[in-house]
Automatic annotation (TrEMBL):
Entry EC no(s): 1.2.7.3
Enzyme's top EC category: oxidoreductase
GO MF: 2-oxoglutarate synthase activity; thiamine pyrophosphate binding
GO biological process: cellular respiration; small molecule metabolic process
Residue intervals passing through the bilayer: none
Top-rank taxon: Bacteria
Record protein name field: 2-oxoglutarate synthase
One family name in Pfam for this protein: TPP_enzyme_C
Length: 277
């Protein structure tokens, strides 16, 4: 049995309908593979891992993996994840959301989860659009790009997810793409090992809703676009690429080791109980 086949049999639920519902060329399956490889590399027990997902294409990941899983309401995945982590801090809680789910409908929850620095690993699958519900513009849709609700181009600036997460207080902040799969593996593995709130943005092509409207001829063109229009952060930091490089930087932007909210809560609980004695 090959390593890939072994991972499939070990981590996916075989009573679910396969092949998965992701469209041909969608990057979400690559993120799913990266997540599974990262969990496997850390030898985490499946019983100790919880996947919490919102509504959207990315939400299907919670259906396929053989962990503890919760498929929650739109934009509210982080509220469920927060409750789970505070109730049982020993669990490795992973929250999976799309850009619309995390930054538009769930934007307020993302800000406060980062501010609290609670020990949740958050994966934001950014395909620049609401993919499942018809291709509407999201808060991550680039300025000028087309969608069902912006047929003449978006007039609004988009959120920078990395800058938002850092400003709000997240411990670990990274950005990868589904073209750079090996880098994405490393970033997710690092996030799973980090204390406090971790955010990994994964740029993931949506050929069906975003690509067609923005004149990408094929999914391959979208992956080529990711290759040409991203630059590794280490290249900028080492001077191999200029700081003014217009391409999207990818890599690890922040890696702090501050205690998470659940750790502070446990310490306070112990202190108060000791005082009561």
């Amino acid at each position: 049995m090959s390593d890939v086949t072994q991972l499939i049999h070990e981590y996916l639920r075989h009573n679910k309908k396969f092949p998965h519902v992701f469209c041909p060329g969608c990057g979400h399956g690559i993120v799913l593979g990266s997540l599974i490889r990262s969990v496997h590399s850390l030898n985490l027990s499946k019983d100790d891992v919880v996947i919490v997902a919102g509504i959207g294409c990315s939400g299907r990941m919670a259906v396929y993996v053989d962990f503890n899983t919760v498929h929650t309401t739109h934009g509210r995945a982080l509220t469920f994840a927060t409750g789970i982590k505070m109730a049982n801090p020993a669990l490795k809680v992973i929250c999976v959301m799309g850009d619309g789910d995390a930054m538009s409908i769930g934007g307020n929850h993302l800000i406060h989860a980062a501010r609290r620095n609670i020990g949740i690993t958050t994966l934001i699958l950014n395909n620049f659009i609401y993919g499942m519900t018809g291709g509407q513009c999201s808060s991550a849709t680039p300025h000028g790009d087309l969608s069902m609700t912006t047929p003449y181009g978006s007039l609004e600036p988009s959120f920078d997810i990395v800058e938002m997460a850092q400003a709000a207080g997240a411990n670990y902040v990274a950005r990868g793409t589904t073209f750079h799969a090996n880098l994405l593996d490393r970033l997710i593995t690092g996030a799973l090992q980090s204390p406090g709130f971790s955010v990994v943005e994964a740029l993931s092509p949506c050929p069906t809703q975003y690509g067609r409207k923005n004149k990408f001829r094929s999914a391959v063109d979208m992956y080529q676009w990711l290759k040409k229009n991203t630059v590794k952060l280490e290249a900028i930091e080492s001077g191999k690429a200029p700081k003014s490089d217009p391409r999207i930087p990818i890599g690890l932007f922040r890696d702090r080791k501050l205690d998470g909210l659940e750790e502070k809560y446990a310490a306070l609980k112990t202190k108060l109980m000791d005082g009561a004695r």
